[in-house]
Amino acid sequence: MNINESVIENVRLVELDGRLDTVTAPDFQQKLLATVGDGNGQYLVDCSKLSYISSSGLRVFLMGLKKVKSGGGKLVLAALQESIAEIFEIAGFSKLFTIAANKDEALAHLK
Amino acid sequence: MRFRSRPLAFYLHSAILTAAILALLVVVVSAYLTTRSILRSNIQKEAELLTESILQRVTVVEQAVVTIAANMATALEEMAVNDDEHDSYLKKIVSENPELYGVTIAIAPKSYEPSEECYARYCFRKESEIHYADLTESGIDIRIEDWFQIAALTQKPVWLEPYYGQAGGTLMTSYCQPFRVPGRWDLYGVIVIDVSLESLSRLVSDIQILEHGYGFLVTSTGTIFVHPVKDFIMNQTLFTLAAERNDAMVEELGHRMLKGERGHLFVEKDIHRPESQVSYAPFQHAPWSLGLVLPLSELNGDIQKLNQDIMMLGLAGLGILFLIIRRMAQKMTRPLVQLTATAELLGSGNLDVAIPKLQTGDEFETMSQAFLNMQAELKDYIQQLTESTAAKERLENELRIARDIQMSIIPKSFPAFPDREDMDIYADIRPAKAVGGDLYDFFFIDDDLLAFTLGDVSGKGVPASLFMAVTRTLFHASCQSDQPVNLLIEKMNEALCVDNDASMFVTLFAGILNLKTGELSYCNAGHNPPVLMRKGAEPTWVDDKHGLPLGVMDGFGYDLSTMIMQPGDQIFLYSDGVTEAENIEKDLFEEGRLIETLSSLTSKKDPETQINTVFEAVARFVGVAEQSDDITMLSLEYFGQENLNMEAEVSREAEFAFRNELEELNSLSEKLETLGDEWELPMPVVMNLNLALEELITNTIFYGIQDDKAHTITVKFSLAGNSLNIEIRDDGIEFNPLQLPDPDLDIEAEERQIGGLGIFLVKQVMDRFEYKREASYNIITLTKKI
């Protein structure tokens, strides 16, 4: 999986491209936690190109969210594909995360 | 607690004492004023009397003089003007009237020519000897002398102003009486009687009234001639005094006395004198006036003494009053304090406290009696309360047990028939009270026939639940015989109508499904029509041939209805607790929302999911309002016979092997994609497979295989009908992933555990997930319906 990081205004943007499974999860974990740092900022994960997720990936998302919450920041996920959204729903993650339909909406949320 | 009684005593004290003090003050003041005026008027009277008595004595002397002079005048008018005769007459008068000092007979011509016919013969007493003198001797013209002129010219008697006579020693006065000289019209005649004022003076100065009261005399010009202050005598007049002292009162006094008035004058205090009262009265004959001065301070002294005495007495009385009040207050407040303490003890729960028995014979006794009564009644009441509470608790306990019993008669374990693949059934009941009146039941009459029912007893609570138990038993019993369902219902109705004193009834839907043929025969006794969800179609109502509820009419004929269930069809039964669920705005859930909720389930709509979803929807709708009725649902899904042939008709098979290394997961996805293409599996299915396999293989790699050796994990796929079966086999240690607990989906992110999610996901996306251990292999079987 490819992970692209950038900054828009003062939002840290992470774009995922590909599959997030047990093999690729560790890399995502490392990059995400580094980006989040102490959690005291605004973070957006663009999942438009995320095609597959398993429990390992969910775990990393959860770790990231915990960090952000304890740091007083905000984390928004954007543009989840239907199958990914369903997995989030089954796992009960749709209740935990702020999920926006697209990147613009997510940015608006973070303002 | 003592301070609480002080206000009462205090109030008593202050109120009564204040009243007493006020009364005392009023008494003192009025006594003062009254005694003062009484004393004053007394003094006035006394002064008046004294004045009168003095004047009486004065008048005697005055009168004597006047009478003598008048007599003499008369006598002389008969007598010849003769020295000797005059002398002897004079001698006679003087010696016979010792109070007189001297008498003069004077005659002078009326004209002013010098004449030798002036004649003044003076006879006086000196050292008890009679002496004579000739007043014309020294060449005085008597005609110009006061003592002659005034009387002669006015022809009226006149008293002269007092003067010092006898060589300046004695105060004297003269009374001049004119007379007619017989036979001589050209002559004036005047008798002069000299009288000493000593005795008068002494009389007045001897006046003793009060301690510093005194008398004084003034003449017709206001000249003071008797006064305790010797300086004033013949030196001052009232007016000169007044002018000297700038004293208007004294001037006023002067005016009044000169006018010959009699009366009293109140004179204010000033530097020369204390506050005084002056009583005055005129002489009867002489144009003089007597004044009596009474210093009122002496009076006041007496009044003040009187007041002091009253005050002393009053204060003493107040003191005694205070003591009495204190005593009384104590007496009154003591029982109050006692009762207060008792009341507090009573109030704190000590019902057996001894209540003081007051026998004061007044309201306190009544109060203590009331307390005693209250105590007895409280005890009684609490006793009753305790008993009824215990009874209530017992009842509640029994209700709880009843509920447990009730719940245990309903089939509650699911999946109810895990081995049967031609149907799936789920049901649940949520009672409103401890025990409910709704019921459901299902059981296999024989291998092919499934009987199921859902009903609602009228009412709630224990009576309804008992009726419900009876109904269910009847259902079970009736369904044993081999009869169509409507006749069974009729039999039940008959039994329920018998001995139905309470007129309870039950609405019921009953059905018997032939799992071989799919034929469903059913009967509706006044119950809500169930929802029928045919595979791929919109939900509809099973809404025909409604009969009466059971227990209403004995012998009622119930109709039989039938329909054919196709594989994939579902029938959904519910009680009116669903459709009549009320929110706080009193809106009802209604059939519309039920249909909506059922329609909204697209991917997962097995009976359990359906029922739980509807429960959630109702709960969300009702919100904080109370659940008013039992909520019961039963859902039945018919799969038909096709599933039974699943194992016989395997259309496709495949097998993969993986090493116990994570990298292998990459080849997993590739292999699954290929398989999906070949077998024409839908994308979601492939994704689910990928997810499930990844999770399970990962778990096996991490937990199942404990050594460093290379192991193989084999995965077998087989497609039979619309069922895709997967078997995962590994030779690791015994490890059952199903034993891992599900994660709690409802807790906050901060509290979510990182692990346990994978297996949960597998359970959710797969239709069947089983584990078994065979020899030294872990075997996991998954099924996904396509």
What is the topology?
The complex is a heterodimer of chains A (111) and B (786).
Chain A (H helix, E strand, L loop, with lengths): L1 E7 L2 E10 L4 H12 L5 E12 L1 H17 L2 E5 L3 H9 L7 E3 L2 H8 L1
Parallel strand pairs in A: 2-3, 3-4, 4-5
Antiparallel strand pairs in A: 1-2
Helix pairs in contact in A: 1-2
Chain B lengths: L5 H73 L4 H14 L3 E10 L9 E8 L2 E6 L11 H9 L3 E2 L3 E3 L4 E10 L7 E10 L1 H8 L8 E5 L5 E3 L11 H8 L2 H11 L4 E5 L8 E7 L6 E7 H52 L15 H47 L13 E8 L7 E7 L4 E9 L3 H18 L6 H13 L8 E9 L4 E7 L5 E3 L6 E2 L4 E2 L13 E4 L5 E5 L1 H4 L10 H11 L6 H16 L8 E8 L11 E10 L4 H16 L3 H22 L7 E9 L2 E8 L26 H9 L2 E7 L2 E9 L1
Helix pairs in contact in B: 1-7, 5-6, 7-8, 9-10, 14-15, 15-16
Characteristic key phrases:
heterodimer; A: 111 residues; alpha/beta; five-stranded mixed β-sheet; 41% helix; globular; B: 786 residues; alpha+beta; six-stranded mixed β-sheet; 28 strands
Question: What would you note in describing this structure?
Answer:
The complex is a heterodimer of chains A (111) and B (786). Chain A is an alpha/beta fold and 111 residues long. Chain A is built from four helices and five strands. In chain A, α1 (25-36) packs parallel to α2 (55-71). The termini of chain A are far apart. The mean pLDDT of chain B is 83. Chain B has 16 helices and 28 strands. The radius of gyration of chain B is 74 Å and the shape is rod-shaped. In chain B, α14 runs antiparallel to α15 (683-704). Chain B starts with 5 loop residues before the first helix and ends with a strand. In chain B, a hairpin with a 4-residue loop joins β16 (506-514) and β17. By secondary structure, chain B is α+β, with helices and mostly antiparallel strands. In chain B, the strands form five sheets. In chain B, strands 1, 2, 3, 4, 5, 6 and 7 form a seven-stranded antiparallel beta sheet that branches. Chains A and B meet through α2 and α3 of A and α14, α15 and α16 of B.
